[in-house]
Amino acid sequence: MDKSSLIGLDREALRLALAAAGVPEKSAKMRATQVWNWVYVHGARDFAAMTNLARDFRGLLDANFTLARPEVVTAQVSEDGTRKWLMRTGPGIEFETVYIPEADRGTLCVSSQVGCTLNCRFCHTGTQKLVRNLNPDEILGQLLVAKDALDDWPSTAPGRSVTNIVMMGMGEPLYNFDNVKAALAIVMDGDAIALSKRRVTLSTAGVVPMIARAGNEIGSSLAISLHAVTDDIRDVIVPINKKYPLAELIEACRTYPGASNARRITFEYVMLKGVNDSLADARALVKLVAGIPAKINLIPFNAWPGAPYECSDWSQIEKFAEIVNKAGYASPVRTPRGRDIMAACGQLKSESVKERASARQAREAVEQVQSAQLQRMPH
Ligand code: SAH
Asked: From the alpha carbon of 223, which atom of ligand 1 is closest?
């Protein structure tokens, strides 16, 4: 039998898993708390590291469970210090994660899906079909791999490297709601990764019916990939707009639970030359978000092979930003990071493709034979 991963289970599921493996009911809760602390505060990668736990208990854990991380296929470092990992958890299940160090913070950009269904015209991930949603252990696994590589344990120590998480990697997090919610609950748990909800941001292209739920059930900060101020243009560059047009999106933001002047909604706006970057667009943008506690983030377009757009000229970005600044939104232009390793916004993509059912069945049959052979081998 395959060992199952304990990563990503909530406390109750962890307790039940331990009980099912033979931990006595009356101590299961206490045991779950101990394991939780080792895994998420101290970053234990195997049960042998849990030195204050009885040897028998560690043996039981080891016989039944794993704390395995995703496999790192490649790890790259940009000339500006940005890091990117390509990770893998199974045949064709490959996804990217980016770490962006800045003077006052370190942000980890995490993927929620392999590929994406949204097809935003300026986004590299949008050219990759959806392979599948990532599971909670795969979403959290990205953070664990990064923290291992950055030597960023224990989670509660001052001066951590990973201070912020943004769900801005591959995929649409609100189309993988339950798994993202499970992973972020552990990220924001004070006895686990312990990042405050202001330091965790979920970005959506505008899955309107899920926005209020995200506020109520996840409670992180919210970013909206706005990118256009009219339905005509947004229909083309962010096609989900045809389903949930601007008026509905803005209304969902207006009523987002938990938004306040202290916790503003971020509106992301990619600068595409001649498409959405006129000064009239800038004026319409500040009008559109008026009355919402908002931050505006202008993102210079990051090119990728075959991209159908160009980045706006710098002088145009400056004029656009000036209008936004004058309306009361401070320094809104996002500095591109990690462009040389294709780690900047919208540049992520993996080679993964959806395996055909017939190919998967054949592979699984071979794997079963192989694992049966391995089990018969003398240890
Ligand atoms: N699906 C979610 C999460 C992806 S976040 C969302 O759309 O919000 C990635 C952010 O980078 C989004 O704001 C996206 O619109 C933006 N982006 C995509 N491609 C880009 C590119 N080539 N240059 C700059 N930003 C881009």
From this structure: 8
CA of 345 relative to ligand 1 center, distance in Å? 6
Could you give phi then psi for residue 231, rounded to 5 degrees? -65, -35
What are residue 32's phi and psi, to 5 degrees?
-65, -40
Q: Is 253 a catalytic residue?
A: no
pLDDT in tens, 34-48: 999 999 999 999 999
What digits encode the pLDDT tens for the residues 275-295?
A: 999 999 999 999 999 999 999
- CA–CA dist 4, 182 (Å, integer): 17
> Which residue among 116, 120, 253, 345 is the active-site one?
345
Ligand 1 pocket, residues with Cβ under 6 angstroms = 120, 122-123, 168, 172, 203-205, 225, 268, 270, 299, 301-302, 345-346
Which atom of ligand 1 lies at the shortest distance from residue 238's CA?
Answer: 15
Considering the candidates 12, 71, 96, 355, report the single residue annotated as catalytic: 96
Q: What is the 3-state secondary structure (H, E, C) of 233-285?
A: HHHHHCHHHHCCCHHHHHHHHHCCCCCCCCCCEEEEEEEECCCCCCHHHHHHH
Which residue CA neighbors atom 21 of ligand 1 most closely?
A: 346
CB of 283 closer than 8 Å to CB of 323: yes
Do residues 183 and 153 lie in contact, with contact meaning Cβ atoms separated by under 8 Å?
no
Question: Residue 346: pLDDT above 80?
Answer: yes
User: Residue 225 C-alpha to ligand 1 middle, in angstroms?
Assistant: 7
List, in order of start, the domains of the chain with CATH numbers. Answer: 4-66 (1.10.150.530), 71-376 (3.20.20.70)
Instruction: Provide CB contacts within 8 A for 209, sequence distance 6+.
Output: 244
Return d(Cα 314, Cα 317) in angstroms, integer.
5
Distance, in Å, from the CA atom of 9 to the CA atom of 29, rounded to the nearest integer, reads: 14
